[in-house]
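Suppose a colleague, Dr. K., hands you the sequence of a protein chain of 645 amino acids and asks what its three-dimensional shape might be. Before reaching for any lab equipment, you can write down a predicted structure in token form. Begin with the sequence itself:
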Amino acid sequence: MASSVAPIRLTLPDGSVREVPAGTTPLEVAASIGPRLAKDAVGAELGGRRIDLRQPLGESGPFRLFTVKSPEAGDFVRHSAEHVLADAVRRLWPEAEYDAGRQDHSEKFQYDFRFPRAFTPEDLEKIEHKMQEILAEDSPFERVEVSRHEAERIFRDLGFSLKLERLKDIPEGETITLFKHGRFTDLCRGPHVQRAGQIGAVKLLEASGVYFKGDEANERLQRIYGTAFLSKADLEAYLERLEQARQRDHRRLGTELDLFSFSPLAPASPFFHPRGAVVYNQLVEYIRGLYARYGYGEVLTPQILDVDLWHTSGHYANYRDAMFFTEVDERQFAVKPMNCPTHCLIFATRLRSYRDLPIRYADFGRLHRYERSGVTAGLTRVRSFSQDDGHIFCRPDQVEEEVLAVVNMILEIYRTFGFEDVEIGVSTRPEKRLGADELWDKAEAALMGALDRNGIAYLVNAGDGAFYGPKVDFQVRDALGRQWQLGTVQLDYQLPERFDLNFVGADGGEHRPVMIHRAMLGSVERFLGILLEHTAGAFPPWLAPVQAMVVPVSEKHLAYGASVRDRLAATGLRVELDERNEKLGYKIREAQLAKIPYMLVVGAREEETGTLSVRLRTGEDLGSMSPEGFEARLREKVAGRGAEL
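The predicted structure, expressed as tokens, is then:
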């Protein structure tokens, strides 16, 4: 009797369509195409979602197979190596209980363990050696669907209470799967490679203490981080990138260059030292210069506001877990986590005409958001920060023009800082949101339409919008090839409604403005951290906290050096004098380590001729210049805001 179940139609990357019976696995599809493909396959994708090779197919859609040669193969390899790690720990310490790994396998894997002590470097060596033995066994990964009752029985028999807790997180009705290889079994959705031997090379990186489910109220577990690749060559290249990243770590550079520090008395809140404050203020002044050109008015708004404001804006209902609160005169107040509600209050202070719009406000006000101590990281995740924040109130017919102006401003900024590789994404309505679907339809269509009509390429990030509106996000790639999200443009029909904002239209009636939220650098603190790593601390001349160091050959030339320093500093340049009684080579090397763009060496010849010997931090010698000539050169570099010295 013929099956009544319709076949599944799989659209392959070349556009061809294959029909297969429901329940066919990706591995069986690969085998039907060719034996070599089946041998080399490590994973699959259906409808944009990664799936395991052994997972029965239940729906039609775009279909891809990933092999050992695919760029995406590393994700499957690292997820599988995660299980090999837990297997190795259990073989060495049978009493250890494993919890869970990580969701993002783009670079690393990890596993958390209930273990009586911290893992040592010697432990990691033993574990890594045991992992190599397991890889050599080349056991196949098996996918097994089980009932909730069966899963509970398995982990109860193992004495794994952590896994029993994890089982509770799986919604009723959702398929529960186990993955096995050799002697090891774990609760996991997958996907995994076919065999352990497809994991070419592994390296354990570090261990740390963590809390179960990331909650400080729960017990402390031990986490091991590692990475894995298809080949030793790929692993070595990654480790080299890691070392470069370590050398460029902004926390390390911040200390070495005396830019900023942190104190346990103000957790996750940076203290900027004089040199760091120079860079910070230069960033702010650069953005202020753009405001004049793009028609923004800068405003100053309070930091602490009655909690009623945050109820009106919707932040209390949607964002209160990330806010700080206080009480004054028996009234509850909140420290502002963002500026947008205060800008609504300014807009509402007077009657606005359609001729007044657009109105563009900018605000560098200090913001505070509660970030868990486990996720704060130097300048890139802090609790106290400032944004190059702005809000535009405009008519609906002005949305496209205003969005494009912001996009152009953002791209101009990134070019200035040497970020040439920029990826734009449109993030659509999240599950938790304000407002009717009709408004979201309108807002999403307006954003995408503005980009489409002007030929700006973008990706769609479904469900990643803000709770009050869709947004355009900008990701840049730094000198090490890492992506960072920076700017954002958010279209908001909700806050004007919630604050009852109006303008008088040409018809004499009242109309709602559209609100556009935008930031280019984002948090100035976070951007500074990213820029530090992008430049390895070697800021361009216009940003450098010290632009030039006057270096006397000996103490005899201190007076001339001081006169040079004073002369250049009087023109507004940031110039210092090295007055130490040290050898010339040592002082030049120290200036280079401090990433100072120019060293102005002065000795007998320079003093006699009234000149300077100019060297770059790169080691290049520019030869002799007059103070006026050097000043003109530096001013040209500052005015152009280029990276060249």
